[in-house]
Amino acid sequence: MLTNVQSERMVIISDLHFGNPFSHQTHHALSFMRWAASQNYDIVINGDGLEMAQGSKSKILQDMPEVFRTIKEIRKLKRTIYYVVGNHDMTLENFLEDWGYLKVSPFLNVSSGTKRIRVEHGHLYDPFYVKYPLLYEKLTHLAGFLLFISPSFYKTWINFEKWRARMRAKKTGIIGEPPEFAEAAREISRRGFDHIIFGHTHHPGTVELGEEKTYLNPGSWLLSCHYVEISEGKVELKQWSA
Question: Any idea where the domains of the chain sit in the sequence?
């Protein structure tokens, strides 16, 4: 299983959710991936790239042909696509690995320049997911049904998470996500990593961990087009516009 990689130029995107009823950025995200490959970046899809927990069959069938064509085009440019498995696509892990166009992994330890970078989806640091996995799964399917009825439900939930985070007495980490994510990133940094990159929460942001170490989250392309760029050990959160 591939977990350790070397790359001087890499971009990380997360939570594309191709096939989700709310996903209207499929073409935009794939355009970004083609651009990144043309600029000699390796690409990491950091979990939940394909939507299996909330996807509608019609939306999946609509999105998949362009997704697969784009992945094949990028491979022809001799760039590598790494796929870190998330909680919405873990049922596809064996299929993606057997397909052969992606390098599939539960996490990545990336070496770039003199820096060590940890990339993982991050759902294992979600306190609700860890404590109540069956309830989490049921609510995820319910949310998919609500999205099918009214995609605006997603924006309402994201705004609620930001409001709840601002009301929280312990204001650490990225606004909108539980403090456990920044705490996990801090613990991983103590184990020798300079930069930690999670997804899962759909909230983009950066947290300074001290000693020139950072935690970054590119959020989700369902609402914004953020990505993390790695260039010879320099790691930055950026936003893409065509």
Answer: 4-239
Q: What pLDDT score does 51 carry? A: 65
Please give the Cα distance from 109 to 196 (Å, whole number).
Answer: 10
CA distance 195 to 237: 12
State how far the Cα of 194 lies from the Cα of 216, in Å rounded to an integer. 11
Rg, Å, the chain Cα set:
17
The mean pLDDT values, 10 residues at a time, for the chain of 242 residues are: 89 88 78 95 91 63 82 91 87 70 91 96 94 87 75 81 79 87 96 96 94 95 92 95 73
Domain 4-239 sits in CATH 3.10.350.10: no
Chain centroid offset of residue 71 CA? 17
Nearest of 230, 240, 238 to residue 42 by alpha carbon: 230
